[in-house]
Every structure is written in C-alpha cells, then in structure tokens.
RNA sequence: GCUCGAGUGGUGGAAUUGGUAGACACGUUGGACUUAAAAUCCAAUGGACAUUAGUCCGUAUGGGUUCAAGUCCCAUCUCGAGUACCA
C-alpha cells in the first residue's frame, strides 16, 4: 500500500473539521460548571492580516511550531486552547478600495477565504469555533466598549492604578484638584472644590479630559500626506511611514490619545516577570526610555517667565554656560529681543522646512540662533545666554536643556561652533578636545558647594539644594509618549463618540456596536475631513439611540458622530482575551471563562511587533487588570519570536564587453546576449578566462573590427551582469530549464547558453522572499507535491525556530523520504492491498518488542520530549529519522512500538500519524492518546565504548564494562597493544579516567 | 555611534554540566535495479598527505586557562537585528 499523502491529508482534515476534534472546552459549557478536570493550556499565534498575496512558506513557520506544541500538550492531558483569527482592519484593503471602489469588507472576506484554505491544508489544530475578525461588528463592539472604559478612567498615582472617573469627580467636589495626585496633562490650573462646583458643565468636561486615560487634545502628530492620516511613532521607520515609505511631517491636530505614559514604570517593571526574548524586552525598555535625574527651573531675566529643564546630570549644574530651547518652544517668541528677532525667525522657518528625515540624516551640521535673552543661574545668579537649536527636540522632556558643554558632547560641539565659553568643572580632566561624560570617574570642581564630590553624591546634593530653593526636584523622565489613537481612515473601528457643543460624549455601551457607515468614496472629503465625512447616515440620535441621517442633526437631540477611526492596534490589543469567550454577546468575556483560561501560556509571532502590538497590548492588559476585568496584569507568560524564512534566489549571467582605447576612453560596450553557466563566471571572477568565454569575446571583438576597422585594443573590460530568474525554472541541482527560460519572456527567445556538460547551472543567493526577486515559494504547491506533513517537518527541520534561515525546496525530499520510510514500517499491519513480500495477517506480523526496539523507542521518547519542552523542534525531527532508520534496520514489527511511535510523531506530522494509528486498529483520533511514558530502565547499559585519547586527541575506542573501577580501566588500557603503539616506549605522566566518559593519557 | 545576537564541511544545521567535532538531512560521486527515465536501495563524502595500516591540519582570527576548549577568559575581525541628537 502506497503512502498516498494527498488522499490521507484530505481525509483527516475533513475528519477533524466534522468532529470538532480540536474544540477546547470552556468552563460554562462543561457539565460541572467552572470545573474542568483537565488543566488549561493556552497556545496563541499572532493572528495574521489577510493580505491579497496569500501565504508563502515563510508565514506558517510559527504556526507549525505552536501547533506542534498545542498537539503535544493535548497528548499530555491538557485542555488546550489554540485559536486563530484575523486582524482584518488595515491599510492595504483600503488603498485597494480607493483605487477600485471595491468595498474593503469584500476584498477582506475574499482574502480571508484564501488564508483559511491555505491554513486548513497545512493541518493546523485550530479551534475555529473561536475565530475572531477585528473588522466584524460583533467583535469591534468590544473594542468600542474598552475605549469607553478607558475614557471613563483616570490614573491615580497614589494607588498606582486606573480608577473610575467618578472617584475623581468626587475628589474634585470635595477638595478641588490640589489634593489629587493624578497622571494628567502638563499645564493644569488648580481649582478648589468651590471652583469646581461653580464650573459650567462644559468646563467640567474640559477639565476631566485633561485627566482621562484617553483624551481629546490638540497634539503635535506625525502627519503622512500620502496616506492622508496620522501615524503613531512606531509606525514610522527612519522618518518615513512604515507602510509605503512616504514622508511624514509634524502637524498640530485635535486627536484622541491614549495616556500610555501613565503606565511607563509598570510596563518596565512587568518585563521582569515574563519569559519573553531578551532583544524584545530590550527594545521595549529602550522605547520606554526611563532616565533618572532632576528638573530644574531657570528664571528668565527681564521676563515673567521660567525655563523648565530636565537633566540627568544635576551634578554639573555649575558647568552650564548657555541654555538651548527647541525652535518650536513656546517661550521663543516671547523672549527674543528685537535685535535677534530676524535671525531667530529665519532659523525657525529654516528648521520647519526641513523634514524629519533630513534632520535625522544630517546630525553633524550644527545650527542654532541666539535669542538675545538671558536666564539666571539658580545658584550663582550669573546670566546665561538663551539659544535655540534643532538638536533639542520639542517632543522630549520639556523641549529645553541646560547646556553643559564640558560634560555633554552635543553641547560641547554647539559651544565650539558658536564660540560660547566651555567652563571646566571636572577635577583633573582635559576638555580641550572633547567633553568628559564618564560618570564613574567624575570629581566635581569649580562648583561651589559641590566641589570635590563624586558624581553620585554631587547629584544628590544638587537636587537637595535645588529643592531648598524651590527651583527643582529629583525626577524620572520617560521617552514613551502618549499614543495617538485617531486615524483619518475609513477601514477601522468607528469611535462610539458624538459631539455636543464640540465636547465628546460616549454612547452608552448597550447601544454598541456603532457600525461603520457606507460611503461613496474612501478618500477624505473636499473640506479635508476624514473619509467618514462622506457618510450621509452618520449622526447620533440621543432619544432613539441610533445612528441617523446627517440631515436630522438639530444640535439638540441629534448630534454629529466622530469622523476618525481607531488605529490598527486597537483590535489586536485584547483579542487574546476575547478568544476565551468569543461569542459572548452580553459581556466581553465571562468571569468563568477568564478565571479558567487566565492568560496565554505560549505566544508565538514575529519580532517586528516588539514596540507596537506587544507594548499596547500590555498597556491595555494592565488597564483591564486595574479595573478588575482580568486576573493577570501580563497577558502572555512566554513569548517566542520565530525567525524569518528567507528565499534562495537564482541568477543567470550575461557579460558585456567594454573596449577601451588606452587607459580610459570607452570606445564601445557590447552585451554578448550569451548566458554563461555559473562555473565560467566563477572563473572570470578569479581573472581566469575559459576558452568558451574567450570564443564569445573574440566574436564580439571581431564584429567590432568589421565595423570599425583594425585597431589595437589593449584594454578590454568584461562586466558581469546577473539577473533574477524564477526559481520554478531551476531544479534541485541548480540546473536551469533552458526551454522554459526562453519562453519566460519574449526577449529571451533565441538566447544562447554557454553551458558545461550540457547543463546551465544558475547562481544562488539568499534574499528576503519577494515577488520581485522571483524566489517566492507557495505552500500550496509544496502540499500538492509532497504533502502537508512533509512541509511541516521540513519547516521545523530547517533549523532553530528563532533563527532566520533560507528556504531551499530541494531539501524537502529528506523529510518526505523519512515519511515514506515511516509508512513502510507499518505496511505489515495494513488492510487489503499488502504488497506481495509483506503479505501476512496482522496477528502474524505482530511480534513482541525486542530489547533493541525498546531501547530505540525510549531514547526517542526522552529526546523528543526534551526537545519539545525546549522548543528545539529541528533536533526532534532528526531524532525521528534516527529512530525510523534504526527500527527499519531492526525490522521491527511490534505493534506496541509502532503505536507509541505514531503518537510521538503526531504533533509534527498529524495526518500520517492519524492514518497509521487507525491502520493499527484504533478508532478514536490519535490526538486523544496519551503521550508515551519514558522508561529509563530500557536505556541502562552494561558497557561503554570508551574513547581512548592521548594528549586530548582520540586515537582509538575500547569497549569496557561500566562497572569497572578506575584502576581496572587503567590497567586494561595501559596493557592494550594500541596504547603501547601510541606511547612508543614513553612513560605517561598522567592518566585521566572519567568513568563512563573518557580516558586521556598524557605524556 | 550605541545595545544585543551570531560566525562550525559544498549547503541547512547537530554536539545537555568543558570529555569521541561534523549527528540528521540536502547536494555530489560511484554502484544495484530498469530497454530507458523516475522512484527505490547500497556505498563513499571536512581538508591535505598516505594507495595498507596510518599521519598532520581543522569550529572567523590571535592569545590564554585546562589532562582535555566549538563550548570558559581576553583582544581583534566580519555579518545580522534593533535603535539613533533622549539632555
């Protein structure tokens, strides 16, 4: 009986779907409420954005790994939840809609269909009954619900958690805002209880907005004109948009923001208790950017104004020789003197024109302008000139720095450039060439009360003295900014918000979801409103509690709705919790479900989400924790980043011949229109011209001579050109299908190949998989030709999960061959079409396992179990191969052994395992079978083949009993003829014997 | 520039606390079967010398610790990822 993988895989995929084999039990659904016998295990993949291109072989890598783990945990007796869904709001579908008019919901649904088909054919054990789609109103109802929760909350620094806004209102009514210690906007006016109670309703709402965890405020945002939307910091890479690479400019706009900065410290602390990859933790730490120092206040001379600065080096405060403000700083226009006005304004204009990208690319050019104003040093009372410079960023800290040129290289460079004095406040340090920033070696000098102190002490004392003056305090600063939450796009979650007199109002949760309205065009309106401005039915009726036509807006009971939509990360920030109870229409998830599932045990996905999805999700989780909705403040215990699978591009080579007269003048460049096989190119690169190449070159030169007459060409340059060729035209031995190549493109017709042994060998290079490089490998084709089980095994076999590694389809014959070999072991137990030489009955075939059989099996169990626990899937595939090779050699026909082996293999190659399991006579799915127990007694050895080394080099091996003593071993080894041969009469200085390991003879 | 990670055959990669380097595959070469091809099976396969036994060199490079180093320590080089005026 043949291993007919296509048939087997289709059969079992159908079986799993029909029997809901991988449906995870929920506490509420089980017989005994809240008490499922099995312990829970939650395995999660980062859900995909369903793009139009479908999957390539790189995409399922992480899904295969998580699937193996999920299936393994089922064998180990866990109630495993392994859900999958779609992050289906996003820019590509909308861009496509703008171009074609096709509704994004339609393209998205089509793409999801393709994804589902591709996922199904790989045989994942997903519980599809839990599927979520972020663009489904039934799902985004809860995204809107969370938004309302966040809006109705503030952050209490005293309790260090989010609290209901009602508690803040109560505090205001009682004591005003002076006693409240909250995370809020920067410039807040203080008010008493009496003030508060006398405020108008609108005024109260304005004040509360400054405290809410999501708030509407005019903020400086990253505006991307090409995409017509704002972008969050993590959506910008190198000053251009992550998607599309469009330029981004700074712009002030009224936007929803999320007060993630309130959670900066907890997001940092939380990293210590989760098992996530260090690089990922590092980049989150970096992104949060905690720095400890002090704030200091400098009074501005002749103005009623102060400059607030943040510094990490308050110990160097006596080294200040100037102040620098960001050009955008509010004070600049106020304090600039009439004489300096022209220069300052010109400078501000010049910096505004420079894009973010230019500013970043050009960090070496020093520029700035003097405002003409002076600040007063808090201690020395000396006047300090105030400058502006674009090396100070408006968005970080207070947008102003106290410049200490002797201790900071940027300040130093600025001072040098503008001839500002550089006072030295470090003992015994030369600062004539560069600034001195080594905190460890710092001893302060020329600094009044700080003289002679090292860094730490000086820092403490400086802060103490600043506090005494009332001009500063110790402070911790974070780089993390509040996250802009509005997008001027169509294809996203609508906000559950309407506006009364310009003030945002939440729609009551019982009226959710607020579904996306239909629009004619997906572009911004003529007046520059977001696409939802095109909707005709987009007003909120507060009486009927429903969305009505805009014409009904009466500014009394019917009000306009919010026109922005939520960003891509809104829907993905709590999806892992919704999976626990995905169809619940009453609440986001039931208490029972949440208490049972708790958190994600294993989360697998790409490292590109380090500072986006994974930071925002942790933020929302902490919020949900504060409000008592979830029991854990970190949502995923363990996270693994799978590496990228790169493509192996193929290249063909042509030459062009450049004829030069004398040293430099190019007379003529001639492409040869011949394709040369790789080895000839290799030779050329080593300055070696093969006769076959020479012939072509001569032809070109002859042709030239015919046209131009005889000349001496003493300089012939040969240039090699390589072109990508579609990898489907290349076989596993790198041979090009020359016929196919000629037909590939019209211009290839009739080209000549210069071959070796009749074969054209292409060049190979590892590159990112992409259409333009013609190196994309589609899993559909692999499944068709080799089967999903071969694909799964091969993806794991390629190398460690976290590492990036190149795909090479040729290698799949290895794992495919293994499966065939595995199959053959079971043939004696198969019904009907037994091959002639194995024609036996089952009972005849079955024999008792031999000692060797058991040894092979149990060493496989041990290794595979260890490997899975360590996520070392590549090595367990090798272990299976060794196991099958051994059992084949042993001609094993023990049902006991083969049953256990089928279970071991089943997480990796589930289809063949199910088939073999049923052929052995089992009627239930193999996924219900317990994992074989390891028994060490089968591995006990009585002897060991000792490596005998001389001076650390292994020379020969000797089989010795394991119970032999050190002395006995030495005796036997020394007496051995090969030992004497090695020593050649010398007496060894030392003999090292590690029983059970090694013998080393020194001398 | 800074932070982190990695360098092992022609290729992907093994090597658990320092203890037989190159497991397992791919590819290559030779052989069997076949009219032929495919498939399958068998054998060889780090390099150099040695046609037998065997010897020497080999885990990016140079040092060091050790009876013993891919593994530990120091320095250097190369590649990859992240980050980038963060005061």
TrEMBL record:
Residues 762-794 form the Aminoacyl-tRNA synthetase class Ia domain. Residues 46-152 form the Methionyl/Leucyl tRNA synthetase domain. Residues 854-965 form the Methionyl/Valyl/Leucyl/Isoleucyl-tRNA synthetase anticodon-binding domain. It comes from the Bacteria. Keywords: Aminoacyl-tRNA synthetase, ATP-binding, Cytoplasm, Ligase, Nucleotide-binding, Protein biosynthesis. A motif ('KMSKS' region) lies at residues 768-772. Residues 286-463 form the Leucyl-tRNA synthetase editing domain. One of its GO terms (molecular function) is leucine-tRNA ligase activity. One of its GO terms (cellular component) is cytosol. SUPFAM superfamilies: Anticodon-binding domain of a subclass of class I aminoacyl-tRNA synthetases, Nucleotidylyl transferase, ValRS/IleRS/LeuRS editing domain. Its EC number is 6.1.1.4. Belongs to the class-I aminoacyl-tRNA synthetase family. PANTHER family: LEUCINE--TRNA LIGASE, MITOCHONDRIAL (PTHR43740:SF2), LEUCYL-TRNA SYNTHETASE (PTHR43740). This is Leucine--tRNA ligase.
């Amino acid at each position: 009986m043949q291993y007919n993988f296509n048939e087997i895989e289709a059969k079992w995929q159908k079986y799993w779907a029909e029997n809901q084999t991988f449906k995870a039990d929920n506490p509420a659904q089980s017989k005994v409420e809240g008490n499922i016998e099995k312990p829970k295990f939650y395995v999660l993949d980062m859900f995909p954005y369903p793009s139009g291109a479908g999957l390539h072989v790189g995409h399922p890598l992480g899904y295969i790994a998580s699937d193996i783990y999920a299936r393994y945990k089922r064998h180990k007796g866990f109630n495993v939840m392994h859900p999958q869904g779609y992050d289906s709001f996003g820019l590509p579908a909308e861009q496509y809609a703008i171009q074609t008019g096709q509704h994004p919901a339609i393209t998205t649904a089509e793409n999801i269909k393709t994804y589902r088909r591709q996922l199904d054919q790989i045989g994942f054990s997903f519980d599809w009954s839990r599927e979520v789609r972020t663009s489904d109103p039934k799902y985004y109802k809860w995204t809107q619900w969370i938004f309302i929760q966040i809006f109705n909350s503030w952050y209490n620094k005293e309790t260090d958690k989010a609290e209901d806004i009602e508690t803040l209102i109560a505090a205001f009514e009682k004591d005003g805002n002076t006693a409240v210690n909250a995370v809020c906007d920067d410039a807040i006016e203080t008010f008493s209880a009496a003030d508060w109670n006398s405020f108008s309703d609108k005024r109260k709402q304005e004040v509360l907005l400054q405290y809410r965890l999501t708030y509407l405020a005019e903020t400086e945002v990253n505006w991307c004109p090409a995409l017509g939307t704002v972008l969050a910091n993590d959506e910008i890479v190198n000053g251009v948009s992550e998607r599309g690479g469009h330029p981004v400019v700074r712009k002030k706009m009224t936007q929803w923001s999320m007060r993630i900065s309130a959670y900066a410290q907890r997001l940092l602390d939380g990293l210590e208790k989760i098992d996530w990859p260090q690089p990922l933790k590092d980049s989150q730490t970096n992104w949060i950017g905690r720095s400890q120092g002090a704030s200091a206040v400098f009074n501005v001379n002749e103005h009623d104004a102060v400059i607030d600065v943040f510094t990490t080096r308050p110990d160097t405060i006596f080294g200040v020789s100037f102040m620098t403000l960001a050009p955008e700083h509010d004070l600049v226009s106020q304090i600039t003197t009439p004489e300096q006005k022209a220069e300052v304004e010109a400078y501000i204009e010049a910096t505004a024109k420079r894009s973010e990208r230019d500013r970043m690319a050009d960090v070496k050019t020093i520029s700035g302008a003097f405002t003409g104003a002076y600040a007063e040093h808090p201690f020395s009372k000396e006047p300090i000139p105030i400058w502006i410079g674009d090396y100070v960023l408006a968005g970080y800290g207070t947008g102003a720095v106290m410049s200490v040129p002797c201790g900071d290289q940027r300040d130093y460079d600025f001072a040098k450039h503008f001839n500002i004095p550089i006072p030295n406040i470090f003992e015994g340090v030369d600062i004539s060439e560069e600034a001195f920033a080594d905190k460890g070696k710092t001893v302060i000098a020329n600094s009044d009360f700080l003289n002679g102190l090292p860094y730490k002490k000086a820092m403490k004392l400086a802060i103490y003295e600043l506090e005494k003056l009332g001009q500063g305090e110790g402070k911790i600063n974070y780089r993390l900014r509040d996250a802009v939450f509005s997008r001027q796009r169509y294809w996203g979650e609508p906000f559950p918000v309407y506006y009364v007199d310009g003030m945002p109002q939440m729609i009551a949760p019982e009226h959710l979801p607020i579904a996306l309205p239909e629009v004619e065009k997906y572009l911004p309106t003529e007046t520059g409103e977001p696409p939802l401005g095109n909707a005709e039915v987009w007003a909120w009726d507060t009486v009927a509690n429903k969305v009505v036509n805009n014409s009904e807006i009466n500014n009394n009971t019917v009000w306009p709705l919010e026109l922005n939509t939520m960003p891509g990360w809104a829907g993905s920030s709590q999806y892992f919790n919704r999976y626990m109870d995905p169809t619940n229409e009453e609440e986001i998830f039931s208490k029972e479900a949440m208490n049972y599932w708790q958190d994600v045990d294993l989360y697998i996905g790409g490292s590109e989400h380090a500072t986006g999805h994974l930071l925002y999700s942790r933020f929302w989780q902490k919020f949900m924790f504060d409000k008592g909705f979830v029991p854990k403040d970190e949502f995923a215990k363990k996270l693994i980043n799978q590496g990228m699978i790169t493509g192996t591009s193929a290249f063909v080579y042509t030459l062009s011949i450049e004829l030069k007269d004398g040293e430099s003048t190019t007379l003529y460049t001639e492409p040869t229109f011949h394709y040369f096989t790789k080895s000839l190119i290799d030779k050329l690169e080593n300055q070696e011209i093969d006769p076959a190449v020479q012939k072509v070159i001569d032809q070109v030169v002859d042709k030239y001579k015919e046209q131009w007459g005889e000349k001496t060409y003493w300089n012939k340059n040969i240039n090699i050109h390589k072109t990508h060729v579609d990898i489907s035209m290349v076989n596993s031995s790198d041979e090009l299908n020359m016929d196919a190549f000629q037909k590939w493109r019209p211009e290839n017709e009739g080209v000549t190949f210069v071959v070796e042994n009749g074969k054209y060998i292409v060049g190979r290079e590892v590159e990112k998989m992409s259409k333009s490089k013609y190196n994309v490998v589609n899993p559909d084709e692999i499944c068709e030709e080799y089967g999903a089980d071969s694909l799964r095994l091969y993806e794991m076999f390629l190398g460690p999960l976290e590492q990036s590694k190149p795909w090479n389809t040729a290698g799949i014959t290895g794992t495919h061959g293994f499966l065939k070999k595995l199959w053959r072991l079971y043939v004696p137990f198969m019904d009907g079409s037994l091959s002639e030489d194995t024609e036996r009955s089952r009972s005849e075939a079955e024999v008792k396992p031999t000692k060797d059989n058991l040894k092979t099996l149990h060493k496989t169990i041990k290794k595979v179990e260890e490997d899975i626990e360590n996520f070392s899937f590549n090595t367990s595939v090798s272990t299976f191969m060794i196991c099958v090779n051994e059992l084949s050699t042993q001609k094993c026909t023990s049902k006991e052994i083969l049953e256990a082996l089928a279970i071991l293999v089943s997480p990796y190659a589930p289809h063949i395992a199910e088939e073999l399991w049923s052929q052995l006579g089992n009627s239930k799915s193999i996924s219900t079978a317990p994992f074989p127990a390891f028994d060490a007694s089968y591995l006990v050895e009585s002897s060991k083949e000792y490596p005998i080394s001389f001076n650390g080099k292994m020379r020969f091996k000797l089989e010795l009993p394991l119970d032999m003593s050190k002395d006995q071993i030495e005796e036997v080894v020394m007496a051995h003829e090969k030992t004497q041969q090695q020593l050649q009469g010398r007496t060894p200085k030392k003999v090292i014997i590690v029983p059970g390991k090694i013998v080393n003879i020194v001398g």
